[in-house]
Amino acid sequence: MEKAIEDAGLRVALFNFDAGDMASGDRGLVSDPSREEQFRENVPVALELARTFGCSRLNALAGQEMPGMSREEQLALAHRNVAFAADEARKVGIEVLVEAVNTFENGPYLLSTTEQAAGFVRSVGRENVKIQHDLYHMQRMEGNLVATLERYVGMIGHVQIADSPGRGEPGTGEIRYPYVLSRLEELGYEGYVGLEYNPTTGTTEESLAWPPRALRAGNVSVEDLKL
Fold first, then answer.
1. What domains are defined for the chain?
2. Which of 15, 154, 168, 196 lies in the 20 to 30 Å Cα band around 181?
3. Is cis: bond before 211, omega within 30 of 0?
4. What percent of the chain has pLDDT over 90?
5. Angle at 109 between CA 103 and CA 110, to 5 degrees
6. CA-to-CA dists, residue 64 to 28, 40, 69, angstroms
């Protein structure tokens, strides 16, 4: 895999810790006591992969609410496991991210708003724990994208985008991405913006036609999206 990344001229910006069987509905292990050992065993494996790939951020999905266990108990367990991962990650200069996702597609997920994700990050109390902020998920759950960015940008370590409600590329839904992304830059965000959408076009190349051509070449700022 390392050679494939190098041959493609790519840089790995972020990947997940073990989150279970995502295709079967799993959305993270950190809040499940029966899978805590599985998560902790994955931490050094994921960190070694990150070091190999030159990746400085890993995402820890919080998991879904579980019958027979209170939300508070689950969050306390998640806090401990994320803190454990963060302490190990700090030794090798890696950040741990926590993401809020929408409950329409992901079931009773523990963190479904930016406020909840921010509260979780604060409660963990580690400088290398930040928010992975997915604008698609947050448009579905709360709207007010720019106001939320203005409030929490200092806590955000990575941004992902798709348009809402169909999760296609920007320009296929209701989010005015030229304005949102330009505002994100004005606020001082210097991290990556990941494209996590389902293309509505016939080819991948066509799905990447939404930004101006110069921006696709990666040599201008997102301010050009104002055009």
1. 2-226 (3.20.20.150)
2. 15
3. no
4. 85
5. 135
6. 8, 18, 11
